[in-house]
Structures are given as C-alpha cells and as structure tokens.
Design a protein that fits this description.
With 235 residues, the chain is α+β, with helices and mostly antiparallel strands. The protein contains 5 helices and 12 strands.
Amino acid sequence: MRGFFAKLGALTSSMGWLNGILYLADRVLDTLSGGRARLFKYYFVRQAVHPRPLLPAHRGRKISVHELSSDDARLSQLPRPREVVQARFEQGGRCLAGFMDDVFVGCIWVNPGKYREDEVRCDFIPCPVGEAGWDYDVHVEPKYRLGFAFLRLWDETNALLREQGICWSISRISAFKPESIKSHSRMGASKIGSAVYLAIGSVQLMFSTTAPFVHLSFSDKQRPVLKLGATRGAC
C-alpha cells in the first residue's frame, strides 16, 4: 500500500492529481482485462503556423527531412504498424520524416482536414475548414530528443502547412505524457478542450468538453465527431 501511494504521489506531481489517478486506472484496466479495457484522456491544443523558421539557418542541417509517399521503403523505419500507416495515407495523411545519414530520426503526420483517430473511436474536424489542419503522432527517437530534431521537423511541417494556406494546426496530446504537453507549450500551443474515452471491448464511452459532450458507441460505425475550432466561433 505504501508503494501505491508513493507511485500515486510521483504521478500527481508530474501530471496533476486527476490525470495521475486516470493513468493508474488505465494501467489497472489494461492489466486486468488483458488489453480489452483502456482509459484515455486527451487535451486538444492549437498553435499558429509559424511564419518563419524556429531554428537558425546553421542549426539542424545534418537532419534531412523528406515527405514520404505510401510506397516509400523508409516507412518500415517508423515505429507504427504497417496497416496503421497505410490507413493514414488513405485518409489523406502526409508524413514528414527526418533522417541523419539515412538513420530515422523522427516524423510528424499532418492532415489538411478531417482526421480519423486510430487510437480511440473518434473523428476530428479542425476549424475553420481550409485554414486549420491537424497534426498528429509527432515522434522523435529517444537518442535525438536532446538535439534539434523536434524543431527541424516542425520547421518543415510549418513550411508545408503555409504552402497549403493553413494558419493553424490543431492536435490531441495524451494527458498522460506531460513532456509532450511541455514541448508543444514551448512552441506556443494552447489548450482548447479535452476528452476522456473509456473503452471496454467494443463499447466506448466518451466525455468531451466539445459537442456532443457525451457519446456511447458499440461499433466503429458509431464514431463521434468533434469539431475543434482554432478561433472563437470557427465551427
């Protein structure tokens, strides 16, 4: 019991008491159900597409960033199942990946519009349509996280979004990953909402700060749709 409260104290200090409790609940559900029951909490954040590079011209140049097509052999280096990667391309996803001497460094995915989430049962629509895009699965390999990889990837992503006329990028971040929240905050991201998902087998219950606020579904055909506005009254 003493160990439990010590762990809870450590979690609440980094996540906050509510997120710490929810994280422990997810771990217990996952363990007891053999992966059939999970609890997720997301924060939805927005950030303006930067008009200028975040890095000075002489920084991060050893990292080359490329947009990968759906048949690019380098996709095998991404830490995601092949079927997930292909599903992202099928819904219009674009992948920017960084390499150093042909070694995978990290990647960012973006969608110009509606995004079909693959971790929970939910679709997200960034608003205003045509001015806001969706970024997701921002990943940097552990050994490169103290370098320029994160900002190098974002510089190329911002350039891509600017070319498309996108002014805002919206995303969801796990409330259980405080470091990801801090990284986005340092780039000017601000929270615009949150949602909690309880999944037990094929049943999913969602509570969200955005309409429809509460949603119960029993199959993938009953996906909730959340419209997330980058600006007041955008949706």
